[in-house]
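On clarity, I found the account of how folds are encoded harder to follow than it need be. What matters is that the chain and its backbone geometry are given together, residue for residue. The format is easy to grasp once an entry is in front of the reader. For illustration, here is how one protein appears when written out as sequence plus structure tokens.
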Amino acid sequence: MSKHTPGPWEMSYGWGTSVTTSTGSKIRQTTDRPLEERQANARLIASAPDLLEALRLILEEPGYELLDTHKAYALEAIAKAEGAT
């Protein structure tokens, strides 16, 4: 399994909506979707490293109790992000 480019990732606008990673790589979207949808997708993509780290921290926090279903959902999301599913 390869590791993702570390955050922060930034959303940028130009001819199309894109996300720039911390190494300067660009993740571009096609322009066949409405601008509002492309911007929403870019925000979600740009926040992915932060969301993954937040899930990990929540699961590791001592004394922080999650319902089993919530914990399973969080673990599933982490596995999906890491390519394990």
Observations:
- Residues 10-81 form one domain.
